[in-house]
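Bug #77: duplicate submission created two jobs. Keeping one. Sequence:
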Amino acid sequence: MAWSLDDMLELGHRHARLEAERKLDPLIETMVESPSYEFHPLGLGMSGGDRVRRYYAQFFEDFMEKIVGYVLLDEWASESAVVQEYDITLAIDGASETHRVVGILFAERTPDERTLLGGERIYASERCVRLMAGPLYDELTPLG
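Kept job's structure:
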């Protein structure tokens, strides 16, 4: 059976829903064994199932606790990716910060011919990436 735009949208929406619900194991199951995450324009990234699992665990425990609101500004999709543009408002030390984030969830075929998410390319400010990655920011490596 061919992979379609509807299939990609369903996978991308399921991933986003599980992220919003903070369901770590089901979220990880939407991805390949060794997903890669890229942070642009910083040119930094990470890969590997263990590192991505640690990223999401701290993302749920720390970053998401700071979110006081968000707006999905737009979404685009193809058979190979879902792109979502958000404004995310955070409460930090009594102040409000709004960050524009564009996330590209991209598909990848597994050796057993399933299609899962290969990871994400995230476009955000350095401040936002530092907040999202928390202590894992220091483990990000230059993209090459």
